[in-house]
């Protein structure tokens, strides 16, 4: 990788992000838990099974419909724990603030963090604050790390995925990415766009209550549904087949995508979960998630197949087929 430079596409959650992690970070840092490339590390400490994760938030703009950088920092880290099957418990908070940042805005962000932490049932128990010279940052960046307690019904992992398993989403795709982009570009959209920024643990708790052998879960943030599904099948002897008509996409999101040429499957979400589970348990999972307002649009969107090893294929609404790949170039950066 010598001689190359970092581009925005290295941070978009797509193919170049994965190449950077796999070719540089994992070999250099070496721990087998890191090599799993999961949303959080699963660790056993004195006989207790824990999950540990960290995330940095550089979103622009810092206030958007449905949330702000503070709410995002809490829910994003809590969700990375939740999709590992862990109940989020404690968070750290590191702030990098640019000189000249308005105190009123900082107070709103911290208030939002407090409210989001209460809603998620987590506690911010340690932190750090740094201030840099004007021009050395873009307002404020936030890093949050979190630990949670793993459930006995935590996902079994990719090795447990079997042909015929169901692929499930908890709700509509692309809400966060569309809302942030519209706010950033001051687009006038008749139908309101709102980020789905929210904690998914209540949905996951319901799903685990009715299914003890969920295979794997992810929250489809950067790179959206496309990157998440490709993470599931990368270098695997199985593929995934989804049906376009079965994937929920809200009308305002669909409209902005048609207007600007975006694919809603590539847009980030911040309050959804994608999971693979035994097909015979899928209906129970859907019913359980739909019992919560957050999961009212939960749907089975496809199945694991041996027809396309290592690939994701979509049956389109017009009756064709197309391969769904990870994004490569950055459609718009700093979405989280």
Describe the structure in your own words.
It is a single chain. By secondary structure, this protein is an alpha+beta fold. The protein folds into two domains: 38-150, 60s Ribosomal Protein L30, Chain: A (2-Layer Sandwich), CATH 3.30.1330.10; 158-324, Phosphoribosyl-aminoimidazole Synthetase, Chain A, domain 2 (Alpha-Beta Complex), CATH 3.90.650.10. The protein is 31% helix and 25% strand. The chain is built from nine helices and 14 strands. It has helices at 15-29, 32-35, 69-82, 103-120, 175-184, 201-210, 224-233, 251-260, 279-290; strands spanning 41-45, 48-57, 63-64, 67-68, 86-98, 123-132, 140-150, 166-169, 216-218, 239-243, 274-277, 299-305, 312-315, 321-324. The strands form three sheets. A seven-stranded mixed sheet has the order 9-11-8-12-10-13-14, with helices on both faces. Strand 13 and strand 14 form a beta hairpin. It is globular and about 55 Å long.
* Gap between N and C termini: 26 Å
What is the succession of H and E elements? HHEEEEHEHEEEHHEHEHEHEEE
In total, the number of domains comes to 2
Shape: globular
* Major beta sheet summary: 7 strands, mixed
Rg calculated over all Cα atoms? 19 Å
Strand order of the largest sheet: 9-11-8-12-10-13-14
Q: What amount of the residues lies in strands?
A: 25-35%
Q: Per CATH, which architecture of the largest domain?
A: Alpha-Beta Complex
Which structural class best describes the helix and strand composition? alpha+beta
Q: What share of residues is helical?
A: 25-40%
Number of strands: 14
Query: What is the average per-residue confidence, as pLDDT, rounded to a whole number?
Result: 94
Runs with pLDDT <50, length 5+?
A: none
Number of helices: 9
Briefly note the CATH topology name of the largest domain. Answer: Phosphoribosyl-aminoimidazole Synthetase, Chain A, domain 2
The CATH class of the largest domain = Alpha Beta
Q: What's the CATH H-level homologous superfamily of the largest domain?
A: PurM-like C-terminal domain
């Amino acid at each position: 990788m010598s001689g190359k430079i970092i581009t925005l596409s290295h941070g978009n959650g797509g193919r170049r992000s994965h190449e950077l992690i796999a070719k540089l970070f994992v070999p250099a840092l070496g721990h087998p838990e890191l090599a799993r490339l999961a949303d959080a590390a699963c660790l056993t400490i004195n006989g207790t099974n824990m999950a540990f994760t960290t995330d940095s938030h550089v979103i622009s703009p810092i206030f958007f419909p449905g949330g702000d950088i503070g709410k995002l920092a809490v829910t994003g880290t809590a969700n990375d724990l939740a999709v590992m099957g862990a109940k989020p418990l404690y968070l750290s908070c590191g702030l990098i603030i640019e000189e000249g940042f308005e105190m009123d805005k900082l107070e709103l962000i911290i208030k939002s963090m407090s409210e989001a932490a209460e809603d998620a049932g987590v506690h911010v128990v340690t932190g750090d604050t740094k201030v840099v010279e004007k021009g050395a940052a873009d307002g404020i960046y936030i890093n949050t790390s979190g630990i949670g307690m793993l459930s006995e019904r935590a996902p079994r992992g990719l090795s447990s995925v079997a042909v015929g398993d169901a692929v499930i989403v908890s709700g509509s795709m692309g809400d966060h990415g569309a809302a942030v982009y519209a706010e950033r570009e001051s687009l006038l959209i008749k139908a309101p766009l709102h980020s789905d920024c929210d904690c998914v643990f209540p949905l996951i708790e319901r799903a685990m209550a009715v299914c003890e052998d969920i295979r794997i879960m992810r929250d489809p943030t950067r790179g959206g549904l496309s990157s998440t599904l490709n993470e599931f099948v990368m270098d695997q002897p199985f593929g995934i087949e989804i049906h376009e008509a079965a994937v929920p996409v809200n009308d305002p999101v669909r409209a902005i995508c048609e207007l600007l040429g975006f694919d809603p499957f590539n847009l980030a979400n911040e309050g959804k979960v994608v999971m693979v589970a035994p097909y015979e348990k899928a209906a129970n999972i859907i019913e359980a998630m739909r019992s919560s307002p957050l999961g009212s649009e939960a749907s089975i969107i496809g199945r694991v197949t041996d027809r396309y090893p290592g690939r994701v294929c979509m049956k389109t609404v017009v009756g064709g087929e197309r391969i769904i790949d990870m994004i490569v170039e950055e459609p718009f950066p700093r979405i989280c």
